[in-house]
Structure formats: C-alpha cells, structure tokens
Amino acid sequence: GCGLAMTSEISLVGQVLPVGGLKEKILAAHGAGMKTIIAPAANRAEIEENVIESVKEGIRFVCVETAKEVLREVFRDESIAERCKKTLS
After folding, report:
1. Is the distance from CB of 27 to CB of 56 less than 8 angstroms?
2. Residue 44 region, left (φ>0) first, then alpha (ψ -120 to 50), else beta?
3. Of residues 39, 52, 48, 49, the one with CA closest to residue 8
4. Are 50 and 21 within 8 A, CB to CB?
5. In the chain, is it the N or the C terminus that has fewer CB atoms within a 10 Å radius of its CB?
6. Cα angle vertex 25, ends 58, 80, to 5°?
7. What is the Cα–Cα distance from 40 to 18, expressed in whole angstroms?
8. For residue 41, which of 69, 72, 63, 60 has the smallest C-alpha distance?
C-alpha cells in the first residue's frame, strides 16, 4: 500500500469536519504501518495532547481544512487526471 490513511467527514462544500475517536484511529493506523495520516485541522490539539510520542514517531500528520488540501496531499507527485487514468484502466 501507499502508507497513507485519512479519517474525517467532508461536507458538501468541501470542508473537512472534525471526528471523534481519533486517538484510537491513529493507534490502528500506526499498527497497520501507516506513515502519513491526514486528519482534520480541528482535531490537531487532540493529536498533540492525547497521542503518545512513541506512536507519533515516524508518522507524518497532515492536518487539513478542505477537500482541496486532501487531494493536493494524496496526489502530490502526479496530477489528479493522471492518477485517475491509472486507477480506471
């Protein structure tokens, strides 16, 4: 896999909304070997305060506010159109 995980809800206008149970979701992603976690910016304090350092070590957290930021992170090394072509073929 790509080692990328995301948890959130996205509104109809593209806002990334905060979620509950983030600590447990991060622990599961850590256990699955994820290296990057995309999370709602509104949950940043929860990550900083409630997730122990040994779990955060080696994980890059990307806190986002919009769906556009999510897409930019997921497709950072190639255009969205190119990625879609590969996925659909």
Report:
1. no
2. alpha
3. 39
4. no
5. C
6. 75
7. 5
8. 63
What value does the mean pLDDT take over residues 82-87?
66
Once rounded to an integer, what is the mean pLDDT over residues 33-49? Answer: 95
User: Which residue, 64, 73, 62, is CA-closest to 42?
Assistant: 64
**In Å, how far are 4, 65, 72 from 86, measured between CA atoms?**
18, 27, 17
Q: Which residues have a Cβ under 8 Å from the Cβ of 51 and sit 6 or more positions away?
A: 23, 26, 27
Q: Mean of the per-residue pLDDT values for the chain?
A: 89
Q: Structure tokens of 12?
A: 């109809």
User: Tens digit of pLDDT for each residue in 59-81?
Assistant: 999 999 999 999 888 887 766 56
Instruction: Report the side by side order of strands in the sheet with 4-6.
Output: 4-6, 36-40, 60-64
